[in-house]
Task: structure prediction
Amino acid sequence: MNRIDQLLENYRSHIQMPLRPGLPASQRLWFAVYPAEEERRLVNRIEEFEMVTKDAGHPWVRIDLKGSLARWLTSVDEEERVEWFKNPEDIELYAKTEWKALLTEFFQQEVSRTPDPERTVFALTGLMDLYDFLHVSELIDSLEQTFPGFLLVFFPGVREGNRYDFLDARTGWNYLAAPILSGK
Result:
């Protein structure tokens, strides 16, 4: 069984357990952890995770961040963007404030369109766009206050204990989310 098959099986077992809305956000947050090199395979099979979720009786909303960096950068005034590229560290500085705020707002808009948000599984994909500009932990901290249902974060990286390392390259952080792993 390949890693994505195993992740899907582990998710199937997890989503079949009774879900309890109203728990603190950290207990309604799940990390689906898989090797970064499996990203393409995962994206091609994301509909299977949706079907498993719906088969378990829960609404599903996918929130894909792929392309969000490019959309944000093109939304910035051209003169200002030119200045940022003269000092690339400025891009990271603005990403941690402006881009994170836009991503949080985008997430909130998706939640507001959902008929039954307390029972909905919000699947967050496309985290690779964050690399080098925004830490996953910073985004999760921002979103944690905004989602009423369950947040399933498709996380390309590794987990050791409660420490998550994004793309096996960035220093990890401790988080108490429920892990769903691509191994047995």
Notes: Residues 88-112 form the longest helix (25 residues).
